[in-house]
Amino acid sequence: xxxxxxxxxxAAMIALYTLPAAGQAQAYRAPRASDGHPDLNGIWQAxxxxxxxxxxxxxxxxxALRPGPYGPLPAKEVLYLGAxxxxxxxxxxxxxxxxxxxxxxxxIRNENREKWVERDPEIKCxxxxxxxxxxxxxxxxxxxxxxxxxxxxxxxxxVRNIYLKDPGPAPVDSWMGQSVARWEGETLVIDAxxxxxxxxxxxxxxxxxxxxxxxxxxxxxxxxxxxYEATIEDPNVFTKPxxxxxxxxxxxxxNAQLMEFKCVEFVEELLYGQWRKNPLPR
Amino acid sequence: MRAxxxxxxxxxxxxxAVVWVWPAQVAGQAQSGQRPAAxxxxxxxxxxxxxxxxxxxxxxxxxxxPLERPEPTKLxxxxxxAQAIEKTAEARRDRAARPSRGDRDAPPVGGDxxxxxxxxxxxxxxFWIDNGTTVITVDGQRRTSIVIDPANGRVPPVTxxxxxxxxxxxxxxxxxxxxxxxxxxxxxYDNPEQRPLAERCLLGxxxxxxxxxxxxxxxxxxxxxxxxxxxxLLVEMNHDARVIPLNKxxxxxxxxxxxxxxxxxxxxxxxxxxxxxxxxxxxxxxSSESLHIVERLRRIDENTILYRFTVEDPGxxxxxxxxxxxxxxxxxxxxxxxxxCHEGNYALGxxxxxxxxxxxxxxxxxxxxx
Lengths: 282, 370
Known about the structure:
The structure holds 2 protein chains of 2 kinds.
Chain A: H1 2-18, E1 42-46, E2 65-66, E3 73-74, H2 103-114, H3 116-119, H4 132-135, E4 140-144, E5 149-153, E6 159-163, E7 178-184, E8 187-193, E9 213-222, E10 225-233, E11 242-250, H5 268-272
Parallel strand pairs in A: 6-7
Antiparallel strand pairs in A: 1-4, 1-11, 2-3, 4-5, 5-6, 7-8, 8-9, 9-10, 10-11
Chain B: H1 11-21, H2 27-31, H3 36-45, E1 57-60, E2 76-77, H4 79-96, E3 137-138, E4 141-143, E5 147-149, H5 160-166, E6 221-226, E7 230-235, E8 240-245, E9 261-267, E10 270-276, E11 292-301, E12 304-312, E13 321-329, H6 347-369
Antiparallel strand pairs in B: 1-6, 1-13, 2-4, 3-4, 5-13, 6-7, 7-8, 9-10, 10-11, 11-12, 12-13
Helix pairs in contact in B: 1-4
């Protein structure tokens, strides 16, 4: 009996020592796609609280708050959502914990948070920008062929064609930017520029200017996982580049597919309802 | 990337006129070099690593040829006739490309009465007009219409059922509607739901997204990416990506989508896309929810996909009808820009608000009269 316990203990010790360290997890070799690179084809989704707030935060009653007798309470615009409108806590995905804002930019972030109902572009079903599109609570699909790389997002039907050859500086700014791919070994690196200053990073008012430059890294770490990193640079808004990272998960449902989410129709009442011939009460 | 100028009037009429009066130059592309047989053979060898016929790339669906034919008996026009149309279009473009006169007078308030944008006050200039430079060429024939079946080149008449459906009394937008309309049925400005789908940034105008995908006045690019188990067909306007699985059954019947539910398979050199499950709001040319579209895409030479579609909806047309036209490879320096329509849609709110202002003015006048 004793020897059996000792043997089990020794086996456990050995198991502990042979478990791969974090860095070694990337030694996983993904199946190849038809372009010879790791196959990223499929439907993927983040599963975390980054879309609420990239930084660490505790749960709160609502995204829009107003003063109450014992502290903040849900604003009237969101009151009726109850627990559905409350914000789950998260430990954050920003390396180092905080986004390195310049002082003026931090003020804008805090104002954005106070005026969330008016300002968050997601409320109006505007295109999400990068990297926000990646970790919104909707799936996205990567199409990787021998000739092209393309990402379709369920939210707002946003799309990104990822150039395999750099076409030079983006001729115009856009919501989803201009993306150029390169491979560094097992990692797909996407360099994204050419953004306008209208998108946010989350529902917590984190923002950027039109000098935004995002470098994303997609690395397969298992049959159903991608390690996702994004380095964010914007000299107008941040004191230095900063990084977020998170796993992405394959949607494993047998019938998984991107559903249609044309939210433009869903926000017509919000944006235009007051101009109906017979407006509904607001 | 072009924003829309929705508040201006009746580009549609112009677009339709333009299709007939205007010219081209792209035709040279497909015609140069090899003989047709050799080019077709080359196209046959274009395969993806998976062995599928390779349709990938950026394609331009613009054409001067209209959907329907003016003269029922004539499918094919002579080269001379084709050149005349293309020359006329080219001349119009050249005329419109002349520098504008800074010292000219302002246009009359409300426009000059013509059918141009808002009565020709200068809404859509040449920058907007990108509807191709050639009439279509299929099998060496210069074609007078996209519709090839029925043989008269016209969309079959709609059934009495369909006419009855269309007479709801209120405006009922359709997916093929032009970008904007000068006036509409009663109540056309009462609610956003009664405005054209393109004005609401739900779909591009003129059934450009389809299916069936039809050529329009501008923004005619399509991008195709093929993987082992999917086809992605991106429609430039409004950044609508059709994600089409291969060899899968359709979504359950109650899952309805603006562009329908598409599944595809390959038949030899042809990609066949089958689409059902449209929403009751899509209403392509007044169709019902039973609309069924079959699209067939085949690479006929290095620079050309022949896009053929068959439309079937017994509740709307007594017989199915079919059209075809080429999608031509984009030029190397062509780029597809983001068509962020909704994000800049100031017009829809203003269109509705304008109508409320008119009503308020009319009410004020009525009160004065009393």
